[in-house]
Design goal:
Number of strands: 12
Distance between the termini: 55 Å
Strand content: 35-45%
CATH topology: Deoxyribonuclease I, Chain A
Number of domains: 1
Helix content: 10-25%
Order of helices and strands: EEHEHEEEEEHEHEEHE
Strand order of the largest sheet: 1-4-5-3-2-12-11
CATH class: Alpha Beta
CATH superfamily: Endonuclease/exonuclease/phosphatase
Low-confidence stretches: none
Number of helices: 5
Oligomer: single chain
Largest sheet: 7 strands, mixed
Length: 260
Amino acid sequence: MARPTRVSPYLAELLSPPPVLEPAPLARRLRVASYNVHRWAGVRGGRQYEPERAFAVVDELGADVLALQEVLRPTEGPDPLRELARRLGFHLAFVVTRLHRRGELGNAVLSRWPLAGAHAIDLSFGRLERRAALAVRVSSGERSLQVAATHLALVDRTRARQVRTLLGHPQLADGPAVLVGDMNAWRPTKASRALDDHFQTRHHNADWPASYPSVRPVLALDRLYARGARIESMETHASEAARRGSDHLPIVATIELEEA
């Protein structure tokens, strides 16, 4: 079997739901979630392909903005990501990180409110790992929220460079912003300390809700950082469905945007 072609990350989808009603303005308080869906392969991974398991978990979250990692859009057959956006009635953006033997693999953001812009950020600084971030601006009414959704590298040195790139990106330069996703961080490192200094928040693993592995979580790999917004609460969603839906549990945070 031929190996997948190496590509630079690219924006592959920007989709809005059919207009039904005029959307309400962006709320000052909203729920933001992050979920590594493990290529729709459930907790076991491998050749399993069960998007419905992850769909059931997303239905439980009640999120207003949802960041997904390890999203597989298959070359053949229905597209689970579009189906999920249709079910939720949400706006969708998707960035391809690499080509998988079964299709495109990358990061997605789904939002109750319109996406005023979407950008692919290449974070592939190591030779072995293809990584990227998806930066969007959620906007409606007079409020907006910058969202950078990512899945960082396993290697500390590469992850630190990725964090520096994200923190210097214009998408996080002004207004309320969140950086969310699978940070692959389980101990204090240069990368986590840089995030600490920028967002003035915690980094020790014990202070974050553990999300991995889903069957018995001990590592806080999935995190959300905020600036210009207060994190009121952050927790893992540890339902029975979530323990079967992926090898990660989703995290859900309630944030309150600061007044301009």
